[in-house]
Amino acid sequence: MVNARISVEHVVVIGASAAGLFAAAAASGAGARVTVLERDETIGTAQPRYGVPQGRHPHVFLHRGLQAAEEFFPGLRDDLMAVGARPFDTAKLAWLGENGWSTRNASSYQVLSTTRPRLEACIAARVAELPWVTIRNPVTATGLTRSARGWSVILSDGSTLDAELVVDASGRTSRFRRWLTELAGDAVRTTEVDAKIGYSTRVYEGDPDLADVPGVVIGPTPEAPRGGLALPVEGGRWMIMVLGMGEHRPPRGNAGFDEFLTQLRDPALAGIAARLNPVGDAMVYRQTSNVRHHYEALPNWPDGLLVAGDALCAFNPVYGQGISVAAAEALALREVLRDGPTTGWSRRLMTRFADLAETPWSICTGQDRRYRSCPDDPTRLEHLSNQWALQLGRLQAHGNLRAARTLSGVYHLMTPTRQLFHPALIAASVAGRFRGYGPLTARPAGLPAA
Predict the structure, then answer these.
(1) What are φ and ψ of residue 9, in 5° steps?
(2) Which position has the higher pLDDT, 376 or 194?
(3) 242, 228 in Cβ contact below 8 A?
(4) Which residues in 122-196 belong to E strands, given as ranges?
(5) Nearest to 331, CA basis, from 243, 413, 245
(6) What distance in Å separates the CA atoms of residue 344 and residue 125, rounded to the nearest whole number?
(7) Averaged over 81-107, what is the pLDDT?
(8) CA–CA separation, 93 vs 88, rounded Å?
């Protein structure tokens, strides 16, 4: 029996953050009329938004996300560059990992460093230019019911919007689980992994004069659970972020921020801050748990409903995976709508979304479970994966370019995880254990010592 095609003429997207904007572009690209609902007033401006509290902190647009975004908005990279986004090869970062400084002799994927408000403003401007797309704000979706057309979204002013497809992209505060329970009585299983990570960011201006170093990352470890990074952003400014786990989280206030910088296992970030001039106060953020709602496990998922972005799977923002996963989800949505959805299409697509989230979820939760501040111990598989990742990090710190490229490719969602077990890497690991790994990568000369 051949499933009948389902017509999707009107799509309502709840939320105009990155995931919602990508979903709107996907539906428009498939020929549907789209209404985007956003509760914030400042959508489309380069100002921090209440609905995106981590927007005041560093954001790196990973290569897979940029690649996907360019499919929706050709030239978006140029748009971001025109407003000051800073491109760099992540392999050239000064990165202090658990085994030492990563080699900078490899090449990796180019990323763009920009503030989150500027990134979303550029994407929103491109979405506003798309045919048949309307962004309505400030307005809040307060409920969901069935209608003759498929679904009816109830708005805060009492009006309703009917559509064949509703996409919830409202982020961590999504009400969709409650709505679904009210509609179908199905309870949704949720998994949360919380290492109680907190971070604090302060913006600076000036030139730290780091020679050929585009940015610095001081990675935390289970033994030294404090770290941080310094990255350039638009406007000739720098963002310096510090982070810690549990009782080691950075305190509030500028004095506490400055003191925390001096407590890291390398003085580079404190030295960079000393060369720059602060702009504004340090801003703290602590909502960093990984939260995954297993909608794909519901046996009777209704057609015409989708959940995307952080509303489906929210990652610890420290790892920078969320926007790239949301862009990949939107590409999958556009593909299905262009091909013509058939009965059961929404459930199949939710399963695909879950698959897209699997690798970054494993990366984020596998790392967070290593810290004593996380109440969940790593599973046996995660423990083995972490041990192998540490071994690859050791190879990278001793100059192995294949290890560096592979780790970077997996992190950027560009390389399948099976490449982590390439025979050449296994052989290099065995050789290193028996014959030694060679000299460690030196601390980059351009970094301040204090």
Answers:
(1) -100, -35
(2) 194
(3) yes
(4) 133-136, 141-147, 150-155, 160-163, 165-168, 190-193
(5) 413
(6) 34
(7) 90
(8) 8
Decide: 283 and 117 in contact? Cβ < 8 Å: no
Decide if 154 contacts 160 (C-beta within 8 A). Answer: yes
The arithmetic mean of pLDDT across residues 51-74, rounded, is: 76
In the structure encoding, which two tokens stand for residue 346, read together?
């929404």
Q: How far is CA 356 from the centre of its chain?
A: 13
> How many residues make up the chain in this entry?
450
Helix ranges (H only) for 321-371 are: 322-339, 345-368
Neighbours of 253 (CB within 10 A): 13
* Residue 339 pLDDT > 70: yes
User: How far apart, in whole angstroms, are the C-alpha atoms of residue 290 and residue 317?
Assistant: 9
Number of continuous H segments (helices) and E segments (strands) in the chain: 12, 21
Residue 345 reports pLDDT greater than 50: yes
Cα four-point dihedral sign 90, 19, 307, 349: negative
Residue 219 phi/psi, 5-degree rounding, is: -75, 140
Q: Compute the distance between CA of residue 380 and CA of residue 25 in angstroms, rounded to an integer.
A: 41
**Paired residues of 205 in beta bridges:** 237, 277
Domain limits, the chain? 10-84+116-191+291-364, 380-435
% of the chain surpassing 90 pLDDT? 64
**pLDDT tens per residue, range 19-61:** 999 999 999 999 999 999 998 876 655 555 555 555 566 777 7
Kindly indicate the confidence band of residue 286, based on its pLDDT and cuts at 50, 70 and 90: confident
10-84+116-191+291-364 classified as CATH 3.50.50.60: yes
- Between the alpha carbon of residue 334 and those of residues 104, 210, 331, 338, 354, the distances in Å are 38, 43, 5, 6, 16
Query: Tokens 């658990």 belong to which residue?
Result: 98
Q: Based on C-alpha coordinates, what's the Rg of the chain? A: 22
DSSP state of 92: G
